[in-house]
Amino acid sequence: LIASAIAKIMAYGVLGPAIAIGMIGAAAVVAIARNPQASSKIQITMLIAIAFAEAVAIYVLVVALILKFAA
Hints:
The protein has helices at about 1-35, 40-70. The protein is mostly helical. Helix 1 runs antiparallel to helix 2 (about 40-70).
């Protein structure tokens, strides 16, 4: 029962940030294509947003490891 809960947490927790990072990257490419002069500002904002999305995946990993070793 615990193993299936850990598997579900990891699956949903990794799927969300992966989709978010893809959407962030696609939006940045479109924005740079529309306004090439603002590419440096767009890239900085994109990297910050990707870091926040990746932090969610790291939190999910921590929760899964806690469940695995504490239970």
